[in-house]
């Protein structure tokens, strides 16, 4: 355990005030204890010391002009964390809460997630503290162009390939790709999550949500169970949440909640997914308006949440799919879930459960799929988009979806068999972290001290 304390203590000195980053590192390091003890090579090659230090961190000014002529300045980030397994790969997040700690935690998680997919992709992440809420299309475009005026020189199909994350979808990728093409003069796969009209992959939009539900299904299969008839709590109402709910319906389950930054929606008879798509993908409006069409549903505003957690986890249900953001599921939320009958948690979001909450799930021995395994379907399908772009092919929805299911199955099998190998068969946190670490660490050793 000493190396955990010394690593975190060192990070606190060299990278001060990055609590989300320390949280992500600590979770991984705790899992690695059994393998680090038995493999001196990892210590002599300073793998941990090198893994927690990004290969490159790019921070830049993003000035832009709003519709009224006012000048704004945001911060832009791209953290190129680890390229042992391939070009840096990971999304861009536009949200006012973005800072170096958030981007570093996401980039660090991405290294292991991408390793778990078995595909040749390294880990990176980027974004900005820009808040897209309430901004016109013109403002979004000017922001994206300004962001790209700096980022374009750092990315490319074989160096670093960004995609979407919170606040970044097909619209933003379009504006960024357009500016990239203008600045470089090259039409190439430097982004994933592109529109289907110009190089995007079928099923990429659906992949993260679908993948988290496939992962849940594989966890249930271990216990000869299925999702059929299960009542499910989902958080978030964005890209991941919407397509998790869609796949839940397709597999005979019923999503009964979702949420956004304004509050939680609960609909006992099942969420009206077509309406959610209209509100969120079409109107970019608040979930609160759902009640106008469904007076039998309830909307709980954020101000009315319990002090120790979030309303969305306080209903009776069989399964939970956190698909909004980090630390959105506390210890008290986890205890409420277990008390109310929940037997499965599959994380569509990155690091949605606090460490205390994870411990509640592991102690209760419910099926718990950590984000870096359960939500890897998004980035895996991004790699399938890269493969199609590089070979100038277009695969059908069914082809991509079949590959996605196979990848999610492989991730589950790898995490599960590694957990068994280390004597903790239910602990997919340990299984996923060790399996991913081995792949990255062994590649780093073979590539020398770089
Ligand atoms: P979106 O921007 O499409 O949706 C995010 C949703 O979460 C929105 O409903 C948003 O509310 C809500 N939300 C975001 N931040 C907060 C916050 N601080 N408090 C409360 N609610 C919040 O993002 P995605 O669906 O793409 O991403 C969701 C999660 O999934 C993130 O953790 C992301 O890192 C992760 N992820 C995404 C992947 C992808 O392919 N997109 C792949 C793997 C993981 P509102 O509508 O009010 O803004
Ligand atoms: O967190 C993630 O894995 C993503 N936001 C998707 C990254 C990608 O490159 O598709």
Tags for this model:
alpha/beta, Rossmann fold, 2 domains, seven-stranded mixed beta sheet, 17 helices, binds NADPH dihydro-nicotinamide-adenine-dinucleotide phosphate, binds (2Z)-2-iminopentanedioic acid
Provide structural commentary.
The chain is α/β, with parallel strands linked by helices. It folds into 2 domains: 2-188, Leucine Dehydrogenase, chain A, domain 1 (Rossmann fold), CATH 3.40.50.10860; 205-369, NAD(P)-binding Rossmann-like Domain (Rossmann fold), CATH 3.40.50.720. The chain has 17 helices and 12 strands. The chain has helices spanning 2-14, 19-38, 40-44, 47-51, 100-116, 137-151, 170-184, 204-221, 239-250, 273-282, 290-293, 331-339, 355-364, 371-374, 377-391, 397-421, 428-446; strands spanning 56-65, 71-82, 88-94, 122-128, 160-163, 231-234, 254-260, 263-266, 298-301, 319-321, 344-346, 367-369. The chain has a 7-stranded mixed sheet with strand order 9-8-7-6-10-11-12, sandwiched between helices. Strands 1-2-4-3-5 form a 5-stranded mixed sheet. It is globular and about 60 Å long. The two termini are 27 Å apart. 53% of the residues are buried. The model has no long low-confidence stretch (mean pLDDT 98). It binds NADPH dihydro-nicotinamide-adenine-dinucleotide phosphate and (2Z)-2-iminopentanedioic acid. Residues 95, 97, 164-167, 208, 236-241, 260-262, 323-325, 348-350, 375, 378 line the site of NADPH dihydro-nicotinamide-adenine-dinucleotide phosphate.
């Amino acid at each position: 355990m000493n190396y955990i304390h010394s690593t975190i203590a060192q990070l606190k000195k060299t990278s001060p005030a990055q609590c989300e980053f320390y949280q992500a590192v600590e979770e991984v390091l705790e899992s690695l204890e059994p393998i680090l003890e038995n493999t001196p090579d990892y210590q002599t090659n300073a793998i941990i010391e090198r893994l927690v230090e990004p290969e490159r961190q790019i921070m830049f000014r993003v000035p832009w002009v709003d519709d009224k002529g006012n000048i704004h300045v945001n911060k832009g980030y791209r953290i190129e964390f680890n390229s042992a397994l391939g070009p840096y790969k990971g999304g861009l997040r536009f949200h006012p809460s973005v800072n170096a700690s958030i981007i570093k935690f996401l980039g660090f998680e991405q290294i292991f997630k991408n390793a778990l997919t078995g595909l040749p992709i390294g880990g990176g992440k980027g974004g900005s503290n820009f808040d897209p809420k309430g901004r016109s299309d013109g403002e979004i475009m000017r922001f994206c162009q300004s962001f790209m005026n700096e980022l374009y020189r750092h990315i490319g199909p074989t160096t670093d390939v960004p995609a979407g994350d919170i606040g970044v979808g097909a619209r933003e990728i379009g504006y960024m790709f357009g500016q990239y093409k203008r600045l470089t003069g090259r039409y190439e796969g430097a982004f994933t999550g592109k529109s289907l009209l110009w190089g995007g992959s079928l099923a990429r939009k659906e992949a993260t949500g679908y993948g988290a539900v496939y992962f849940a299904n594989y966890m249930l299969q271990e216990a000869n169970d299925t999702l059929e008839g299960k009542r499910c709590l989902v958080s978030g109402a964005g890209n991941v949440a919407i397509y998790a709910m869609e796949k839940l319906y397709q597999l005979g389950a019923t999503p009964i909640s979702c949420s956004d930054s304004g509050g939680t929606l609960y609909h006992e008879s099942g969420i009206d997914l077509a309406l959610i798509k209209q509100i969120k993908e079409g109107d970019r409006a608040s979930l609160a308006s759902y009640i106008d069409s469904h007076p039998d549903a309830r909307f709980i505003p954020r101000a009315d949440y319990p002090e120790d957690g979030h309303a969305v986890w306080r209903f009776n249900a069989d399964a939970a799919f956190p698909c909004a953001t980090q630390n959105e599921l506390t210890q008290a939320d986890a205890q409420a879930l277990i008390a109310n009958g929940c037997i499965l948690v599959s994380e569509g979001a990155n690091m949605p459960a606090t460490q205390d909450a994870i411990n509640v799930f592991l102690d209760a021995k419910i099926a718990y799929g950590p984000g870096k395994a359960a939500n890897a379907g998004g980035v895996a399908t991004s790699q399938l988009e890269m493969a199609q772009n590089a070979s100038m092919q277009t695969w059908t929805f069914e082809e991509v979806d079949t590959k996605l299911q196979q990848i999610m199955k492989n991730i589950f099998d790898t995490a599960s068999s590694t957990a068994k190998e280390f004597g903790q068969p239910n602990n997919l946190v340990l299984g996923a972290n060790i399996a991913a670490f081995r792949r990255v660490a062994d590649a780093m050793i073979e590539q020398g001290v770089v």
